[in-house]
Amino acid sequence: MGLLALGTPLSWDETKPLAEHIRYHGITQFLNTWDRWKDRTGKGLLWGDEIEYMIVSYDDDNRTALLSLRQTEILKKLQSVTLDPKLEQLKPKDCTAIPTFHPEYGRYMIESTPGCPFTGNPKDLISVEADMRFRRKIIRSHLLPHELPLTVTSWPRLGALDDGKLPFTDPETWPDTQKSSSRSQYVGELLTNPHARFPTLTANIRARRGSLVDIRVPLFIDQNTNVPDTEQKHLSNGIPTPAKPLPGTPSIHMDAMAFGMGCCCLQITFQAWNVDEARRVYDALVPVAPIMLALTAASPAFRGYLADVDARWNVIAASVDDRTEEERGLKPLKSDRYSIPKSRYDSVDLYISNDPRNKEKYHDTHVPMDEGVKQRLTEHGVDNHLASHLAHLFIRDPLVQFSETIDQDDQASMDHFENIQSTNWQTIRFKPPPVNSPIGWRVEFRSMEVQMTDYENAAFSIFIVLLTRAILSFDLNFYMPISEVDDNMQRAQQRDAAARNSFHFRRNVFPHDKPRERFDLTSRPVSPPAGQSPTSPTSASIRSESISRVNGTASSSSKPTTPTGSRRNSGDHLRPSGSSQLRSSVSAPPTPRRTGSSASRCSSEDEDIGEEDETAQMTLDEIINGKGDHFPGLMGVVNAYLNSLNVDVGTKCELRRYLDLIKWRSKGRLVTPANWIRKFITTHPDYKHDSVVSQSITYDLAKAVDEIERGVRPCPELLGHNYVGSGPTGCL
Ligand code: ADP
Ligand code: MG
Ligand code: MG
Ligand code: MG
Ligand code: MG
Ligand code: MG
């Protein structure tokens, strides 16, 4: 959750007059970092995940499962355990470092990250699951006997009050519409992390907005669902509704930040060699974000009801929507500066790379900018794309400021910058280097929902890491209009989107200066199937090209030193050839990419495929596994990348285990967590076909999710037949 400095938080009325000061110094701080880092090459790929857990307290006698509000005590314990040398002996041999644990928004939430970042070395990738499992085991081993560490995205009964009869938290908390920071009618103050940052964020969002947040998702309508007379009842078992409820249709209402920020997700952060590479990967991941949201969808129920959506995104976006009525376009602009189309939590609005393929026409939505900020940045020499990105983030006001840190040393702090940056919660985040740290430019992938098992969490993390390597290695082009990415975000949340929906995606992802045929790798598996020679023309051409590029780079004099405290060797052979600093030392023929004029590239591309046809609508299966002869799919490029490396067969097989999960899920042969949870609820004997997720159903669901993770309850429809759980107790 970013900064957790202690201090005296200011109210919204006290923060508002400081907004310009914070923005001004935030930009100064960015520019200082920019000057230090714009030409610097870092240590290349290092990456790590963040996994969020809910601590659930169950009672077998009463068949209840409640959110356990013991975050503070549990974290204290975990922090002391991780300092205890005894833990070193329990560490699986694949894990390099003792993990770290962090607080999150909900008082029932814990976040874990690896103790030191992973490399992109395939040997390192296949240890990711062990690292994740070690973290879960540490947490589990230090919970009370009736507590579970579950990785579910939305807690089905968060905010369900059942007429005041049953709480959903342990201990009980009740709403206080007069005094709580959210003023919610559904959730109490104790649900929120007590650190001053969180209640202040909650209260100041509400105060800035001028009203409680207003979250609505379409209700799943079943035979016996109680629908007000004023609203039409159409059974939802047919066609899924749009992800945002249409006016006058039944919806689930929520009114507090906790409904969104209290969801759990899976995030991945990658370090790039330099700022250009970070910007290139950022752009390429923008269209990938909704695709991965659909594939990981895991939240079919909110506030005790089944929703007609499968994913959390619109809920979390609305849960922190601090825009005033003027900014939301409900009133003419008078005291506010901008009309703002999106919440602070939403999908990316601008591509940021200077790649000539990043064309103006892809920016086809209204994106307000702080022109003063933009001018300062451009006058300092920051290019238009990056200046626009920052000027857009900086239309927002700071939400939490401590009185002790209003004046900062802009050479030694990034706090004012982070104040705005870290409360712009976009699908992808461009992270500048922290001050006084060897950490370089990074990109964070933020759209995915957390999965119930670490096998799945590892699979999605590995897939995204390999995809970034393929993007860089083959110089792939995923650009498409932002409006279509936004449309995909909505499609991704609809019920059963993974199996039913189609999504816009770019048809020709290959750089124009390389003939498409050379990448014709549709459905090519990692290891060639029997009868196919590994030196068949297509795979050989891509392999020899990549190996020579990669080898040439790795043996160059600019080879980076292994960072201290990092794992094994840092996978130098994975160093991509994209960065301009490295190109001169690459022994393979240099690729003409970006040296040719953008104009010639544009015109030939437009001749090649008409503008109308740059994107097509494809199923998830097609986007992942490929379509026809020309679109290899995201898995196709990942496979091609793996084929280009010198990876031993054993490691490839291990990686295959993870990649297969994504392949089969995108084909619909394995279901999403949302689909599985929905079915568990609707087929539960206590379910009354009224859309209500009762306490007893939630209890059985929590137990089942835990048993699946430990491997004591088979779940082949979700995980396939080879899943091995963390054992009968799941403890260390
Ligand atoms: P956030 O600000 O998004 O909450 P966290 O600190 O919780 O960030 O997590 C950041 C992730 O980035 C962790 O998984 C960590 O292992 C990883 N990480 C740490 N150092 C680097 C680095 N130099 N490059 C890339 N990732 C890193
Ligand atoms: Mg988090
Ligand atoms: Mg974090
Ligand atoms: Mg953090
Ligand atoms: Mg994060
Ligand atoms: Mg199109």
From TrEMBL:
<dbReference type="GO" id="GO:0006750">
    <property type="term" value="P:glutathione biosynthetic process"/>
</dbReference>
<dbReference type="GO" id="GO:0004357">
    <property type="term" value="F:glutamate-cysteine ligase activity"/>
</dbReference>
<keyword id="KW-0317">Glutathione biosynthesis</keyword>
<comment type="pathway">
    <text>Sulfur metabolism; glutathione biosynthesis; glutathione from L-cysteine and L-glutamate: step 1/2.</text>
</comment>
<dbReference type="InterPro" id="IPR014746">
    <property type="entry name" value="Gln_synth/guanido_kin_cat_dom"/>
</dbReference>
<feature type="region of interest" description="Disordered">
    <location>
        <begin position="491"/>
        <end position="615"/>
    </location>
</feature>
<dbReference type="GO" id="GO:0005524">
    <property type="term" value="F:ATP binding"/>
</dbReference>
<feature type="compositionally biased region" description="Acidic residues">
    <location>
        <begin position="605"/>
        <end position="615"/>
    </location>
</feature>
<keyword id="KW-0067">ATP-binding</keyword>
<dbReference type="Pfam" id="PF03074">
    <property type="entry name" value="GCS"/>
</dbReference>
<feature type="compositionally biased region" description="Polar residues">
    <location>
        <begin position="530"/>
        <end position="551"/>
    </location>
</feature>
<feature type="compositionally biased region" description="Polar residues">
    <location>
        <begin position="577"/>
        <end position="602"/>
    </location>
</feature>
<comment type="similarity">
    <text>Belongs to the glutamate--cysteine ligase type 3 family.</text>
</comment>
<dbReference type="GO" id="GO:0017109">
    <property type="term" value="C:glutamate-cysteine ligase complex"/>
</dbReference>
<protein>
    <recommendedName>
        <fullName>Glutamate--cysteine ligase</fullName>
        <ecNumber>6.3.2.2</ecNumber>
    </recommendedName>
</protein>
<feature type="compositionally biased region" description="Basic and acidic residues">
    <location>
        <begin position="510"/>
        <end position="521"/>
    </location>
</feature>
<feature type="compositionally biased region" description="Low complexity">
    <location>
        <begin position="552"/>
        <end position="566"/>
    </location>
</feature>
<keyword id="KW-0436">Ligase</keyword>
<keyword id="KW-0547">Nucleotide-binding</keyword>
<dbReference type="InterPro" id="IPR004308">
    <property type="entry name" value="GCS"/>
</dbReference>
